[in-house]
Amino acid sequence: MKLQRKSGLRALTVGAVAITGALVLTACGSDNNDNSSSPSGSSQPSASGSSANAAGISCAQGQILASGSSAQQNAIEAWVRNYQQACNGATINYKTSSSGEGIIDFNQGTDAFAGSDSPLKPEEAAASKKVCSTGTGINIPMVGGPIAIGYNLPGVSNLVLDASTIAKIFNGKITTWNDKAIKALNPSATLPSTKIQTVHRQDDSGTTDNLTKYLGGAAKADWPYPHAKAWAAKGGQAAAKSSGVSALVKQTEGAIGYFELSYATSQSIPTVKIATGASQPVEATTQNASAGIAQAKVVGTGSDLALDLSAAYTTKADNAYPIVLVTYEIACDKGNKASTLPLTKSFLNYIASDAGQQQLSAAGYAPLPTEIATKVRSTISALS
After folding, report:
1. CATH architecture observed for domain 147-292
2. What pLDDT, in 10s, does the model give residues 330-361?
3. Ranges for the PBP domain (predicted)?
4. In the structure, what pLDDT confidence band is assigned to residue 51 with cuts at 50, 70 and 90?
């Protein structure tokens, strides 16, 4: 399903999600509730708790703040809109910033939950204990998808790169588009001598962390940096958030950058197919990303559901896209604020439900595999 693009910040109706960012994208069909799921057609939540409505959402009242990952911005926007249409008296404000900023806000007690493209570091989990009075911050997987490598090279389509070549490009070792390494992977393409302009995130980003995990796992000899939310390689141009990176690639001939698939699709930015050793180079699609994410293993302990995606980075399975991420909602397992816990659980229950997850493909994301989704729902139900 094609995505509908809207430039700039979209004017939001009363009660809609408050999202900050340079670009807000809306997926076609992502907010197509039928009339019965609107506030006028649903039972209203009582002042003392929650009630189910025609949309199947168990509503709660109140207001919560959240912030973090721009990778999940498009999914969160659609989810919040649907929830608020179905649940009168609920306001969910998600500020799109970055994974790093979201975790800082959460650990300062500002947010009911935070979005992050990478699981909490040990020191971040330790810091969360000050906010989670009787518990700790945990990682709850929610949104999966491919990290697309988008490029701007007029006249060149179906560009194929492998992990080594991508690493050398972003590390400044390959500097022109007609480099012999790129030619070898694209023998039938007419590649210009245009200088390559790499674009990376200027803010701490889980998208950067996941890309560099891939490069370190699949092209270790050509990527000398440890994975991190902060970009470590020298050179290139920096831009804020995924929206900023994609916008700069879109307007700069010869540019290449990385961002979630929804940004590439909505702006008609061509994306690289990855030569993984499979029978054919693998395209960045939600279906192909799901094939990679399905190989993930839960490595968190207790109620924490942090995932190890390393098996995806080196897979040679047909149609398995290797550069994937999973965004997490960070919440307290215990010790959540009594004033915000009902709405936090209600909203997280909705987005983890079949109805919530089914919206993801239309927005360029991959739904959680069934086994992981089942564990997520159980974890959310136990939040206290």
Report:
1. 3-Layer(aba) Sandwich (3.40)
2. 999 999 999 999 999 999 999 999 999 999 98
3. 54-354
4. low
